[in-house]
Amino acid sequence: MNLAILISGSGTTMEAVITAIKEGRLTNINPAIVVSSDSTAGGLEKAKKLGIKSIIVERKKYSSQEEFGNALLDIFHSNNVDFISQNGWHPLMPKNVIDKFLNKIINQHPGPLDPGYPDFGGKNMYGLRVTCARLGYIALVHADLWTESVIHYVNEKYDKGKLIQIKPLGIRDAFFVNDINGLRKKSDILKKHSEEIQKKLFPLEYEDVIEVLQEFANGKNPIYERKHRLIREENFSQLEEAKKLAIELFT
């Protein structure tokens, strides 16, 4: 399976995946190309050290999603790519790429998703913002103490593709508040706690991606379905408040 790994930042998951391939823990996969949407991404140097070809494709240089997609398709074609893994990739994937690689593009997300329903995904929800939103929501509604790593298929909307696999992470030392004003007063604690939880989540994300890639390399097409909705209707407003504050705190 010729794999394209798409990044926008530090490339830690990319590094974990390629290392797993080189060590033989991830088999039947060739890391064909690393594509970065940001010329300053730290993952580019990691790819160089690992001996993997990389290229920069910045969304802002294209006048439309279609042109952006055509540029990506040219790269994938010239490198014989047949599977794509978004690992910290921020741009919305163009429709023409999705159509060409239907059910062959996956994305990792550092928080609970429930495609088609309110959750901890969507535009501008990535990295520490996701963990912060989850912790903020827990504080506001006194929810159960957990978060999770999620792998899902990519479609035309941010974080709305069908789920593939999840890995839960328990949370300790959470705090609770009565409203958004109370949460704002604890912003410093919330930020610190988000950073601590993210460090614990990283290894689970790496393991999650590696396991899912092996499934696809073995010819499988896994799907995971939730038995219950993540967010109750009476808590929709607290979810939006938590997400808004998370974006403010990690801008």
UniProtKB/TrEMBL annotation:
Q: Which GO terms describe its biological process?
A: 'de novo' IMP biosynthetic process
Q: Matching Pfam families, A to Z?
A: Formyl_trans_N (PF00551)
Could you say which EC number(s) this protein's record lists?
A: 2.1.2.2
Which SUPFAM superfamilies does the record match to this protein? Formyltransferase (SSF53328)
| EC class of the enzyme, as a word | transferase
Instruction: Cite a GO CC annotation.
Output: cytoplasm
Asked if the record carries the keyword Transferase, the reply is yes
Superkingdom of this protein's organism: Bacteria
Keyword set for this entry? Purine biosynthesis, Transferase
Q: In which pathway does it act?
A: Purine metabolism; IMP biosynthesis via de novo pathway; N(2)-formyl-N(1)-(5-phospho-D-ribosyl)glycinamide from N(1)-(5-phospho-D-ribosyl)glycinamide (10-formyl THF route): step 1/1
Name of protein = phosphoribosylglycinamide formyltransferase 1
Which GO-annotated molecular functions does the record name? Answer: phosphoribosylglycinamide formyltransferase activity
Q: Where is the Formyl transferase N-terminal domain?
A: 1-166
Signal peptide positions on this chain: none
Q: Does the keyword Transit peptide apply?
A: no
Species name: Candidatus Roizmanbacteria bacterium RIFCSPHIGHO2_02_FULL_37_24
